[in-house]
Backbone:
């Protein structure tokens, strides 16, 4: 119904309807559920004040099973999607943030998130925040320190926009990819949730970024926290050449501009070592 009666420029709002409402106030959002006030989101500007020098962005590739986390400071970690299992397994401590850009993950795995400590910083796109309210209600929303991962070209509550209308220092683009440098303005997708963690690193202006569990191989194999019987579908194979590689090439070009070092800790990754060098810092 929303899509039928809404202008095309607002159709990106459909998956965050009908119960969630976000109201912008300076650099935060007030969160409402079914008309009732829930909380205020944290500020991306405030998070930047907590930025570590080094950041580990941890995904869910099977190589995670061969990684060592004993000496890893949890405050340096950003976990994407099911990587939260590492907290539940006591392999890392409280992360800097958890990032989810997929409402489907919320619907299928919300119980993993609710097992996280109360007050965990949870960064969600609007559709995923709506999904959390649907499956976990008001108490589920209140369990977390919420943050909105807005769409750079599809901002919440506003019509679609061109990147040309955004501040020029808030993004970089190539012929086939776009990269956010300021999560106040929003983020871009490229077919892998790891790109959220990468853009978090640029927002924080870290000196070194380590990509963990970023395999992009064995597309038919379960993630480290799944089994063959409950593995969710993945579109990585189709997205790899067309979207993911161009985004990673732009990542490395921009990292050089910002004097940021980026490493891939997956020993089984399909990503060329000539593009992102390998680090064995977490090898068992």
Residues:
């Amino acid at each position: 119904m929303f899509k039928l009666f809404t202008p095309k420029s607002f159709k990106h709002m459909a998956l965050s309807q009908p119960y969630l409402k976000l109201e912008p106030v300076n650099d935060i959002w007030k969160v409402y559920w079914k008309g009732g006030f829930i909380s205020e989101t944290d500020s991306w500007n405030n998070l930047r004040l907590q930025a570590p020098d080094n950041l580990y962005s941890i995904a869910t590739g099977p190589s995670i099973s061969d990684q060592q986390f004993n000496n890893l400071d949890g405050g340096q970690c950003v976990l994407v999607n099911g990587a939260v299992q590492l907290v539940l397994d006591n392999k890392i401590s409280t992360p800097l943030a958890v990032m989810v850009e997929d409402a489907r993950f919320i619907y299928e795995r919300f119980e993993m998130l609710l097992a996280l400590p109360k007050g965990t910083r949870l960064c969600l796109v609007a559709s995923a925040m709506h999904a959390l309210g649907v499956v976990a209600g008001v108490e589920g929303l209140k369990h977390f320190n919420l943050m909105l991962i807005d769409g750079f070209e599809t901002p919440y509550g506003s019509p679609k926009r061109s990147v040309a209308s955004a501040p020029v220092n808030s993004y970089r683009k190539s012929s086939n990819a776009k990269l956010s440098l300021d999560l106040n303005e929003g983020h871009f997708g490229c077919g892998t949730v790891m790109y959220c963690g990468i853009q978090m690193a640029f927002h924080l202006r870290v000196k070194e970024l380590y990509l963990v569990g970023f395999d992009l191989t064995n597309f038919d194999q379960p993630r480290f926290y799944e089994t063959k019987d409950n593995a969710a579908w993945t579109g990585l194979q189709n997205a790899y050449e067309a979207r993911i590689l161009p985004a990673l090439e732009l990542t490395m070009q921009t990292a050089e501009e910002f004097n940021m070092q980026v490493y891939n800790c997956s020993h089984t990754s399909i990503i060329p070592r000539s593009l992102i060098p390998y680090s064995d810092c977490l090898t068992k």
User: Anything to note?
Assistant: The chain has one domain: 20-264. Residues 20-264 form one domain.
